[in-house]
């Protein structure tokens, strides 16, 4: 009787292994057919382009805002600070 139990367990293990191997082979075939890398490269390219465009727009907004503030200060008779000049504080935080 112990041989029948051993053969049953061995048969179940072999069947499980065959099902697992078939699933693994099927998954590999799907991954090979799917252009995952190409899709990732395209998505990254779009992301980089979008980021660059957003940076251009932000810089344009910053410059336009500086121009408006400088013109408003000029109308009030105040001197405006040149672009790129940082405001210095005489105190520590």
From TrEMBL:
InterPro entries in the cross-refs: DUF1490
Location of region: Disordered: 72-93
Entries under Pfam families matching the protein: DUF1490
Name listed for the protein in its UniProt record: DUF1490 family protein
Source species: Gordonia tangerina
């Amino acid at each position: 009787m112990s041989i029948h139990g051993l053969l049953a367990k061995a048969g179940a293990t072999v069947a499980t292994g065959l099902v697992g191997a078939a699933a693994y082979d099927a998954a590999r075939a799907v991954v090979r057919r799917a252009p995952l890398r190409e899709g990732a490269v395209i998505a990254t390219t779009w992301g980089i382009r979008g980021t660059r465009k957003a940076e251009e727009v932000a810089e344009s907004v910053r410059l336009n805002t500086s121009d408006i503030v400088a013109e408003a200060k000029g109308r009030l008779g105040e001197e405006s600070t040149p672009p790129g000049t940082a405001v210095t504080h005489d105190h520590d935080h």
